Amino acid sequence: MGAIQGIFAAQYQTLRSNGHSPSEAFNETVEELTQSLMPLVAENGMDWMYANCSTTAQRGALDWWKKFKDATQPVFDELYASVAAGKEAARSIASNSTADYREKLDAELKELRESEMWQAGAAVRKLRPGK
Q: Would you give the distance in Å from CA 4 to the centre of its chain?
Protein backbone atom coordinates (compact mmCIF):
# COMPACT_ATOMS: atom_id res chain seq x y z
CA MET A 1 0.00 0.00 0.00
CA GLY A 2 2.91 2.33 0.68
CA ALA A 3 4.16 2.02 -2.90
CA ILE A 4 0.69 2.69 -4.27
CA GLN A 5 0.15 5.69 -1.98
CA GLY A 6 3.60 7.04 -2.86
CA ILE A 7 2.97 6.78 -6.60
CA PHE A 8 -0.49 8.31 -6.23
CA ALA A 9 0.91 11.20 -4.17
CA ALA A 10 3.73 11.88 -6.64
CA GLN A 11 1.48 11.87 -9.71
CA TYR A 12 -1.21 13.92 -7.97
CA GLN A 13 1.35 16.53 -6.86
CA THR A 14 2.81 16.76 -10.36
CA LEU A 15 -0.64 17.38 -11.83
CA ARG A 16 -1.56 19.94 -9.15
CA SER A 17 1.79 21.72 -9.61
CA ASN A 18 0.97 22.02 -13.30
CA GLY A 19 -2.43 23.64 -12.81
CA HIS A 20 -4.84 20.72 -12.69
CA SER A 21 -7.76 21.00 -10.26
CA PRO A 22 -7.95 18.61 -7.29
CA SER A 23 -10.77 16.60 -8.86
CA GLU A 24 -9.04 16.42 -12.24
CA ALA A 25 -5.76 15.35 -10.61
CA PHE A 26 -7.58 12.71 -8.54
CA ASN A 27 -9.42 11.38 -11.59
CA GLU A 28 -6.22 11.11 -13.62
CA THR A 29 -4.29 9.58 -10.73
CA VAL A 30 -6.59 7.27 -8.78
CA GLU A 31 -9.84 6.85 -10.69
CA GLU A 32 -8.18 5.97 -13.98
CA LEU A 33 -6.04 3.30 -12.33
CA THR A 34 -8.58 1.79 -9.95
CA GLN A 35 -11.75 2.11 -12.00
CA SER A 36 -10.46 1.67 -15.55
CA LEU A 37 -7.06 0.03 -15.81
CA MET A 38 -6.77 -2.42 -12.90
CA PRO A 39 -10.10 -4.18 -13.44
CA LEU A 40 -9.08 -4.82 -17.05
CA VAL A 41 -5.59 -5.98 -16.08
CA ALA A 42 -7.07 -8.29 -13.44
CA GLU A 43 -9.50 -9.77 -15.95
CA ASN A 44 -7.30 -9.92 -19.06
CA GLY A 45 -3.63 -9.45 -18.14
CA MET A 46 -1.09 -6.75 -18.83
CA ASP A 47 -0.27 -8.09 -22.29
CA TRP A 48 -3.94 -7.65 -23.23
CA MET A 49 -3.84 -4.05 -21.97
CA TYR A 50 -0.84 -3.26 -24.14
CA ALA A 51 -2.52 -4.87 -27.15
CA ASN A 52 -5.84 -3.07 -26.62
CA CYS A 53 -4.95 0.51 -25.76
CA SER A 54 -4.23 3.41 -28.05
CA THR A 55 -0.90 3.62 -29.83
CA THR A 56 -0.19 6.74 -27.77
CA ALA A 57 -0.73 4.81 -24.53
CA GLN A 58 1.32 1.90 -25.86
CA ARG A 59 4.21 4.16 -26.79
CA GLY A 60 4.17 5.94 -23.43
CA ALA A 61 3.95 2.72 -21.46
CA LEU A 62 6.73 1.04 -23.43
CA ASP A 63 8.97 4.11 -23.23
CA TRP A 64 8.52 4.69 -19.50
CA TRP A 65 7.98 1.36 -17.70
CA LYS A 66 11.69 0.57 -17.37
CA LYS A 67 12.37 4.01 -15.88
CA PHE A 68 9.69 3.38 -13.26
CA LYS A 69 11.13 -0.06 -12.55
CA ASP A 70 14.64 1.35 -12.22
CA ALA A 71 13.39 4.12 -9.91
CA THR A 72 11.49 1.78 -7.60
CA GLN A 73 13.75 -1.30 -7.65
CA PRO A 74 16.12 0.07 -4.98
CA VAL A 75 13.17 0.84 -2.69
CA PHE A 76 11.76 -2.68 -3.03
CA ASP A 77 15.23 -4.17 -2.50
CA GLU A 78 15.69 -2.08 0.66
CA LEU A 79 12.25 -3.03 1.93
CA TYR A 80 12.78 -6.73 1.25
CA ALA A 81 16.12 -6.68 3.05
CA SER A 82 14.53 -4.90 6.00
CA VAL A 83 11.74 -7.50 6.19
CA ALA A 84 14.17 -10.40 5.81
CA ALA A 85 16.38 -9.00 8.59
CA GLY A 86 13.40 -8.68 10.93
CA LYS A 87 13.65 -4.90 11.09
CA GLU A 88 10.08 -4.30 9.90
CA ALA A 89 8.64 -6.72 12.45
CA ALA A 90 10.76 -5.16 15.21
CA ARG A 91 9.67 -1.65 14.23
CA SER A 92 6.02 -2.71 14.16
CA ILE A 93 6.23 -4.44 17.55
CA ALA A 94 8.05 -1.48 19.09
CA SER A 95 5.60 1.02 17.61
CA ASN A 96 2.54 -1.00 18.60
CA SER A 97 3.87 -1.40 22.13
CA THR A 98 3.99 2.30 23.01
CA ALA A 99 1.32 3.73 25.26
CA ASP A 100 0.43 6.41 22.70
CA TYR A 101 0.38 4.08 19.68
CA ARG A 102 -3.30 4.60 18.88
CA GLU A 103 -3.03 8.39 19.07
CA LYS A 104 0.03 8.44 16.79
CA LEU A 105 -1.63 6.03 14.36
CA ASP A 106 -4.81 8.07 14.31
CA ALA A 107 -2.79 11.22 13.58
CA GLU A 108 -1.00 9.55 10.66
CA LEU A 109 -4.25 8.20 9.24
CA LYS A 110 -5.90 11.60 9.70
CA GLU A 111 -3.07 13.22 7.73
CA LEU A 112 -3.80 10.88 4.81
CA ARG A 113 -7.58 11.14 5.11
CA GLU A 114 -7.54 14.93 5.27
CA SER A 115 -4.97 15.43 2.53
CA GLU A 116 -6.22 17.34 -0.47
CA MET A 117 -5.92 14.27 -2.69
CA TRP A 118 -8.11 12.04 -0.53
CA GLN A 119 -10.59 14.84 0.18
CA ALA A 120 -10.93 15.23 -3.59
CA GLY A 121 -11.31 11.46 -3.76
CA ALA A 122 -14.17 11.48 -1.28
CA ALA A 123 -15.98 14.04 -3.43
CA VAL A 124 -15.26 12.18 -6.67
CA ARG A 125 -16.44 8.83 -5.28
CA LYS A 126 -19.78 10.40 -4.37
CA LEU A 127 -20.23 11.19 -8.07
CA ARG A 128 -19.75 7.61 -9.24
CA PRO A 129 -22.84 6.05 -10.80
CA GLY A 130 -24.90 4.13 -8.29
CA LYS A 131 -23.73 6.17 -5.30
A: 3
